Every structure is written in structure tokens, then in C-alpha cells.
Amino acid sequence: MSRELSATSGVRRIEIHPSLLAADFAHLADEIRDVEPFVDGLHLDVMDGVFVPNISFGPVVVEAVRRATRLPLHCHLMIAEPSQYISAFRDAGADTILVHIETLTDPVETIEDIKASGARVGITLNPETPTHRVQPWLPAVDELLIMSVHPGFGGQSFQPESLKRIRWAVHQRDVHGLALCISVDGGIGPANARQVAQAGADILVAGTSVFRAPDRRAAVDAMRGAHPFTVSPP
To answer: Looking at the domain assignment, is residue 52 inside a domain?
Structure first.
């Protein structure tokens, strides 16, 4: 997926996953169709009012989104006790299930449950949580989602300290030879996408900067153009 290099240019391709939380829910299918031709996946923020202050939606909405698109669906479970809902979100159509390390009492069991469901496994790290909390589990997951804002509210400003965390994740991946995708969520738009991509992110999650942009395609093109470097042929 996102870490592939162009055979001709050697440039690493950055994926853009708009967060549906910023879309117009009164016209959700239309919103999805509008961005579908030029994005790589959709990010679905599931909030329960317990782990984070806000409440968003559950499996029923994910199921409706699945019917509306063939794009990969990344379900970001910002909920307490996510293990209880893995089957429900997978059955609803989630391709990737992302859970917060802060909510897991038994990371091994949760990771194995997600794998058994057939979904890709993602683990998420909040800005205030030390990176060592996720380090032991990186070899077992497909994706690390680094939160660059505090979860639960859209429209927050990107926290520059997150760049160090992205570089740390890249270092872990390189040193240990991991097949790890690095995604970043929070306050990302055309103005800072290059910084985030240069730090090593593979997937940029953007909500407001896509769905509230006057020209959504132009906004996505601007972020996708943030290639971090050109790789020299071997």
C-alpha cells in the first residue's frame, strides 16, 4: 500500500485518508462520492463519550459507508474496552481496526482478536503517552497511528512534537526490519503535510483540511505532493 515506491521515479507515495467526521452527515454518500476518485482510503473516528469526551457513531454508520464505497475503511476506535466491538466493526466493513494502547489491558489478546477477524491491525498512541508503551507491540501490528492532537475533537492545531514521534517510529521500523505503516492524525493540511511526510509518515489523516476546503481535490493534491525524498536506485 502506502510504502510502495514508483518504479520509474523512486518517489515514495503518500496516502491521504480523509476523516469522515468532518464531512456533511446529512449527505454522507454524496460526500464520499465527491472525494472517492482522488483519495486512498477513509478514516472513521468512532468515539464513545467515555475514552474521549465526544460521541460520534458506531457500526451502523460504518456499514452504511461500506455500502457507499470500495475504498479501504480505517476504523479508529477511540472507545473504552475496544475488544468487545472488534467483530461488530469488522462485520460492518472495517478493513483496518485501530485501537488505543491506553485502553488495552491485554494488548496480545486484542491484537490476536483483530487478526483473527481478518482486519489489518493498528495501534494508536496519544500525544501524552510515552512511546515505550507501544514499542513491544510494533512487530505484531500492521500500522502505528500517531495522534498529533488530543483525540476527541476535530479542528485542533498540529502538535510539532509529533514529528519526533514519527521519526522514532521510522527508526524502530528500520532497525528491526518491520513491515509497519506509519499514519498520523490531527491538524494536518497542505501547510504542514510536507513536514509530516519528510519525518516519515506513510498515511496522512486529514478531516477539516479536506472536507472544508473550497477545492477538495486541490487540497489533497497539495498534501500528496509532499513526498519526503527521492530514493536512489540500488
So the answer is: yes
45 catalytically annotated: yes
Determine the residue type at 203.
I
Residue 232: inside a domain: no
The boundaries of the domain holding residue 193 are 15-224
Mean per-residue pLDDT, 64-73: 98
**What pLDDT does residue 6 have?**
40
pLDDT surpasses 50 at 234: no
In a domain, 67, yes or no: yes
The single residue of 40, 45, 48, 113 carrying the catalytic annotation is 45
Grade residue 154 by pLDDT with cuts at 50, 70 and 90: low
CATH number at residue 107: 3.20.20.70
Q: Where are the alpha helices (DSSP H) in 100-213?
A: 107-117, 162-176, 193-199, 208-211
Structural domains counted in the chain: 1
Q: What torsion, rounded to 10 degrees, do the Cα atoms 148, 40, 75, 30 define?
A: 110
Asked if residue 63 belongs to a domain, the reply is: yes
**Residue 67 to residue 230: CA distance in whole angstroms:** 37
Report the mean per-residue pLDDT for the chain: 91
120-125 and 143-147: which strand pairing?
parallel
d(CA 37, CA 114): 29
Give pTM, 2 decimals: 0.91
User: Has 40 been annotated as catalytic?
Assistant: no
Burial class of residue 212 (count of CB atoms within 10 Å of its CB; 0-12, 13-18, 19+): middle
Rounded CA gap, 54 and 91, in Å?
24
Which one of 40, 113, 185, 202 is the catalytic residue? 185
